[in-house]
Amino acid sequence: MTTPALPPLDPTIIEALSHITTATLTTVLLKKGLRNVWMRGPAPIKTGMPRLIGRAFTLRFVPAREDLATPESWANPISTRSAIEAMPAGSIAVVDSMGVRDAGIFGDILCARMAKRQVVALVTDGVVRDLSGVLQSGLPVWCAGTASPPSVAGLTFVDWQQPVGCGGVAVFPNDVVVLDDDGAVLIPQNILDDIVKSAQAQEQLERWIMSEVAKGAVLPGLYPPNADNLARYKKAMETGK
Fold first, then answer.
1. Which residue, of 123, 130, 181, 239, is most buried by count of CB atoms within 10 Å of its CB?
2. Is 197 in a helix, a strand, or coil?
3. Which residue positions in the chain have pLDDT lower than 70?
């Protein structure tokens, strides 16, 4: 299978998004009419990881079918192993596991290979196995938990780099994914620049609001700001006070 190359993500976009929370992004996306961008289920497998950004490299599982979901299938041309070898550095693997939580899609060896290929992170609405080894692999993982059985115990891998649904969110290859302690948020590729600019403005406004809260300001009219407070905010940005 020939996989289309992922266009590199502009380093200035990565730098900008590294300072914007997923909470802010969901607010900005909501204002643009996109309500369903936070993936249900994926959570960081450990605390203390930095905010991560990358283009989505998608993988898809369907329910297990006994003639297809076998250990022998791992050697097929269409397999998770082949998909991993197609993942470019800087991408985030987004895996549609249909929310299945009793079959681990990846374990320590696969995660170690992804880390070696400089994949940014793994995101799935399913679970992983070999927890200790996955943690040792160094690959950041957002998932719905862990389970001992292998993927073929409950899932059949079918494809990669196709539109998928992960945690109830439609994810297309090349979309941008942002990860932090609150979870995984998708930014559609076609509105990326607009969302980044709006999110930067929102973060700046919220920093000013926080400074006003610290001074004892009341919330009504401040958050969200009314016309008077918006005028005060703009003046503060102009004067630096």
1. 123
2. helix
3. 1-5, 69, 74, 241
